[in-house]
């Protein structure tokens, strides 16, 4: 490393970021509504903090513990609990004039590199790691984004895919 490079301290970084509390009304929300692995929820919660987003998760018995274990920041994060049918929650978000963006392998999908930054309240929907977004929820999506891959795998895990899309949606990638 060059002797002229000054590494920023955690204190420097805190002073530069989010001088006021955020508001969820004109915001970005990551919604892994069909989670499979608790570790992915913790990782996604950390990404939400990094980009200033909220996390919406279903009220399943194991989810609160997974989030508590995954929250390595040790401060309160913005978590919305989805009760009842997840498609009903998505329909409610759409009725609130949110853009519903799904991360899915679909013919009409926008490539991640072509996804514009979110200009209004946006919910990023992430499906089940093995089966994707259920058919009954696909009709509620305004846009679908696909992450191109050149390797042998078909898709990324929810935490990685969600992190990439969140960074792109806030305009940091």
Automatic annotation (TrEMBL):
The keyword Transcription regulation does not apply. The keyword Methyltransferase applies. Keywords: Methyltransferase, Transferase. Residues 40-167 form the tRNA/rRNA methyltransferase SpoU type domain. One of its GO terms (biological process) is methylation. InterPro entries: Alpha/beta_knot_MTases, rRNA_Methyltransferase, SpoU_MeTrfase, tRNA_m1G_MTases_N. One of its GO terms (molecular function) is methyltransferase activity. This is TrmH family RNA methyltransferase. It comes from Tenggerimyces flavus.
């Amino acid at each position: 490393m060059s002797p002229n490079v000054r590494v920023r301290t955690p204190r420097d970084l805190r002073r530069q970021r989010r001088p006021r509390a955020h508001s969820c009304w004109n915001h970005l929300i990551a919604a892994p509504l069909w989670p499979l692995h608790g570790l992915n929820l913790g990782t996604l919660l950390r990404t939400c903090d990094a980009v200033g987003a909220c996390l919406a998760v279903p009220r399943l018995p194991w989810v609160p513990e997974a989030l508590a274990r995954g929250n390595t920041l040790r401060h309160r994060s913005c978590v919305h609990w989805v009760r009842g049918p997840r498609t009903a929650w998505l329909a409610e978000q759409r009725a609130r004039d949110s853009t519903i963006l799904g991360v899915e392998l679909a013919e009409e999908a926008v490539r991640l590199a072509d996804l514009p930054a979110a200009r209004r309240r946006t919910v990023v929907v992430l499906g089940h790691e093995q089966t994707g977004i259920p058919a009954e929820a696909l009709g509620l999506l305004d846009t679908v984004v696909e992450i191109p891959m050149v390797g042998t795998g078909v898709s990324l895990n929810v935490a990685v895919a969600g992190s990439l899309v969140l960074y792109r949606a806030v305009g940091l990638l």
